[in-house]
UniProtKB/TrEMBL annotation:
<dbReference type="InterPro" id="IPR029052">
    <property type="entry name" value="Metallo-depent_PP-like"/>
</dbReference>
<protein>
    <submittedName>
        <fullName>Serine/threonine protein phosphatase</fullName>
    </submittedName>
</protein>
Amino acid sequence: MSSKTRLDKAYNNAPIISFDDTSKFILFSDCHRGDNSFADDFANNRNIYFHALKHYYNEGFSYCELGDGDELWENLSFESILNAHKNVYLLMKQFHEENRLHMIWGNHDMVYRDPKYVEKTLSTYFDPKVGEDVELFCDINYHEGIVLKHTKTEQELFLCHGHQADWWNYLFWRWSRFMVRILWKPLNVMGIADPTSPAKNYKELIKVERRTKKWITENNNLITVTGHTHRPRFPEPGDIAFFNDGSCVHPRSITGLEIENGSISLIKWQIVTTEDGTLKIDRFLLEGPTPLIEYKTE
């Protein structure tokens, strides 16, 4: 199965979410939420992420998570991740209860492509305060891709994780998961990166991006938003419409894409120091806002 076939499949099977210029979306990916151990890359940024997500919840945004939200290669169970970052999941639950949560699976949480696994694992959790199981993400659905379609212009944005263009991490993810758990997790502590990850292997990153851009050009420059490589991308109108929201495990910062007022922006949240020495979490605009209609092809 080629990258083209995998991307075609993800696009053709993607549910369509209608939106207009009043709609607001925040797109994050590659949170890699772990168990708060030494190998949990998310732990360093969890306060930044929670503050940002709380902001978007209060401002009425819908949250689209573009895969690798949960780090299920390094960790054997979701329960340990939930216990480490319960405040994050309870906030995501609020999005879900208001139909504002849209989830995509990636290679590190590819087990979520099985609806039965999702139902068994994510529907409830044990709350020690009440001594019984309580609801978490009841009736949640994970998808390989999602299409946002503008109700007036009929313009489409295709969202997926992006590992469809990475044959090793799509077809042999179970082997990669085994290697990460047994070999790369302990070596990572010593600073040795996993060579199969495009986020840590520049040559693989370029190959993945090249395959994705080829698919986009073959599909009438369809706006495509991915994660996977952890490298933010924000094209100019007229270029290949290939966006990447970056990741939530950058050193001391997270990046994402906002869609608001019919425009798209690349943003970063990080901790900054004020003049009086106070630390605060702040949002920075990196690119945009650019009207989506400027990427529309006839």
